[in-house]
## 1
Amino acid sequence: MRLYRTRRNFLLEEGGQFYRIESAGSGTQAWDTLVTRDDLADYLRTAVAKAERVEAPGNDELEAPIGSQEVWAAGVTYYRSRDARMLESKSSGGGDFYDRVYSADRPELFFKATPHRVVRPHGHVAIRDDAAWSVPEPELTLLITPNRQIVGYTVGNDMSSRDIEGENPLYLPQAKVYNRSCALGPGILISSAPLPASTEIHLEILRDGQAAFSGSTTLEAMKRDPASLADYLYRNNTFPYGCFLLTGTGIVPPDEFTLRARDEIRITITGIGTLINVVG
């Protein structure tokens, strides 16, 4: 099952068919009430049995699948990511930090976005105007309830300014947190079970209609267990509306590549869908 938020209602996709889920409204409060349920999968299975079948939503109807949730992120969870972070921070002497994080028990976790900074599917993500080296980071993203239950998965784009982060590790918040620096969607795969290690993540960047970069990885290349990342995030921390947690990237464009205005970013995760955004 995949859950979508649109401008007018909440939709559930099952077996290639779409159904409108009855709820107390279609706004943020109703969404928060729905996605903070620990029994979300069971609830939706019951709801779809009596739901009205509808047409698939158009691209302009889709909203980011977020209400009042915070968005957090993990870093250095793939070997490829560790290498890239060490290289970009070499001049500042910070490379050793990332090697130590990769091998440590405690992961790197950082705040990524409030809801108003999150871009909807087919919306415009941003690159900082004071950055010279910007990339998207395609990431499996967890939906976690206030009671620490992973109830779903979506596609996340952790937009990053690599030159700012590489200049000094303490600049990480500026490299990562700014308006339209995050995108989520198109919907949420509702499942409490871990995804298979064979799950593929694919990134394609189109420039003037042509492929400027493409790359793929699988969850098998991920060193950190998503459940462990969620456990560390909730240590001495509470999330009354639940939260989203981006779990790191294993796809890094080459050093000579940087995003430009009007580039189209397409991130596909097996079983979840494709998140499409344009730089603008």
Note: The CA atoms of residues 86 and 96 lie 7 Å apart.
## 2
Amino acid sequence: MQDVIVSSWAQLQDELFADSWNEELGRFRSRFAFRGLSDAGYSLETTLIRLGGDFASLEPHLLRNFRKYARRNVVEQDSIWHWLSVAQHYGLPTRLLDWTYSPYVALHFVTANLEKFHLDGVIWAVDYLKTHQQLPHSLQNQLAEEGANVFTVRMLTESLPNLQDFNQLGGHYPIFFEPPSIDERISNQFALFSVMPEACGVLSRWLQKHPTLWRRIIIPASLKWETRDKLDQANITERVLFPGLDGLSSWLKRQYSPKS
């Protein structure tokens, strides 16, 4: 396990931005996707897997009925990748995992749940550039032709128009792609998704076989309150990340909750 346990806010900053220097560009441009979890014991299981039961066979039924009952104007284009993105965004169990380009947004999700403050939190950092070097050549070529490091829903729609095509590619590898800007939450959270060509694929199991592609930053429970207070001062809050009255209410509830 590629774990780094931080002991201070300063060390946390160093770890969040480690390996972000890009020699070719002469700029600090991280190639990592970040996912923050309030409990370091959580694995990278999708909401579809956590549904339980025969979830793989239920996936097409969930998506079919979501498409049937949702308003048609919720997607820009009638493609499976648009529908998956919207479904994930609104809480339907899917094979997608939420990630962000922003280490501070990931850190917010480590510290947003006050009921988990007695537990160590974790940020997973995965190098999506090196991860995509594990993809089939056809997908690597598409990225190269676009001059892109991650996919868009348009690119996936062109190369993999349905999940059956994706499933039949074979192999066990993640694809990182940017969702459409459905609303301000997607934009403000600097979001991207990962997806695997198997409904039962658990990303953390795949990563164990590729230890050079990732690391985990463990935030001890003793550091969570300092982290949370400094994120609030930096305006990394529910009010910003979840624009609307629900985000405002969540922010105020947490702000005025007693520390004990």
Note: The first strand starts at residue 3 and ends at 5.
## 3
Amino acid sequence: MHEAVAPDESRLVEALRSRDEGAFTELARAYQSSLLRVAQIFVANRAVAEEVVQETWLAVLEGIDRFEGRSSLKTWIFRILTNRAKTRAVRERRTLPFSALEPERVPEPAVEAARFRGSEDPIWPGHWSTPPQAWPDERLVAAETREKVADAIEELPASQRAVISLRDVEGWSAEEVCNALDISETNQRVLLHRARAKVRTALEDYLG
């Protein structure tokens, strides 16, 4: 996948090369939380993830003069992060996360089987027995409901949490997520679908 560098990113790159402190602050404000989420896929805990993010920012500042614009600035930064996080994981002998973003050998159902009618159902075999419910808009925008969504996302497996956070919280495109995490479009779609299903189930439980 290839991305064009957006005009505002070109301005940012030039400012960073001029060692503009304001440009770096702008960049950090935009990506710090997302970098931390992704780093936590690979390393043991939040403290280590924060160290990896700091190492990433140093690498960005040291390497910005060599940035060639073959991908977006955002993708370049996140590739640096994932490489640093993987190196740190190897150093700490934490090998499990390396398979976290790979397709699962045993597919995980996105929705519990109990919510569907059985194949022997005389009227609607395989259809919903407990379909998703529509919720009032005013409840969905309530602060408490947003907190429940955030809590549900935090409970997800790391790979699903990273994908749904980047897609639905940060507003990234599927292509941007695939490039940043170095995963296939198919795997990105599966992880996002499962994450959204789990968050929806948590909201259904909360909203009753």
Note: The longest helix spans residues 185-207.
## 4
Amino acid sequence: MLSILIPTYNYFIENLVTTLHKQCISVNIEFEIIVLEDFSSEDYIFLNKNIASLSNCSYKINSVNFGRTKTRQILAEKAKFDWVLFLDADVIPVHDNFIEKYVSNLRDTTAVVFGGYQYDEKQPEISKILRYKYGKEREEKSDTIRSKNPYQFVFSGNMLIQKKLFLALNFKDDRKFYGMDIFFAYQLYSQQIVVQHVDNAIFHLGLENNEVFFEKSLQSVVSRKYFLVNKAGIDSLNPLLKAYLRLKKYYLTKPISLVFYIIKPLLKKNILSNNPNLNYFDWYRLGYICSLNSKQKT
């Protein structure tokens, strides 16, 4: 009935797996849980290897670090059931009936379901405040809000999908790119796949440091421009690309990149401060995407 697939890299996931395992047993369904370590360190392999002792659970290790996108592809190919539930390693279900809620959506008329993200009300340490603030303000949305713009809230870290659909649409390039959820969202959009959003969130626990999240965000901007900027209808899916395409239409990308060169140190200082302004974060990414033709440095 259900394959639960978890790619992980240097993260302790026993709590997540045991929680999911208990819920699957209580719902009394056919299931499997497959954890795939993406060439994690020996310390984390030692901590996580006991997962394999649980019934219907398997624990595997990549021989090299493939990255999350290819690791998900490998997991899907290993899955034995027609429905797969992808979860990131650094999450935990908000509700005790998390699996039950997803099982209720296993219908022939359903293709893909997103349960949403949630963040703890208590703020983390300052070193992680940028990722927390971004998640709290931009990702933590009710299913009602997400359903109004369904392709803008495609988060693969909590996704129930038909196995055959995932294998057909997943990004196949073996190179590592960040921010590929928007690529998958566009695949769903372009194929006119109906996206369903439900109230079945996970807590996102593994917040990156401010500098790490900032750099990954810029790498995600590169991916968007490289793969998606010329795609028909992409402006309806992604606010950043919408703004960029509007500037490009009126030949304003070069002036914006010049202004960006002047003000980017001030923007970056705020973004990495103890109280980051997400509008400044948006402006930095917009200036950065306008400047990518001439320079790649952040």
Note: The longest helix spans residues 253-271.
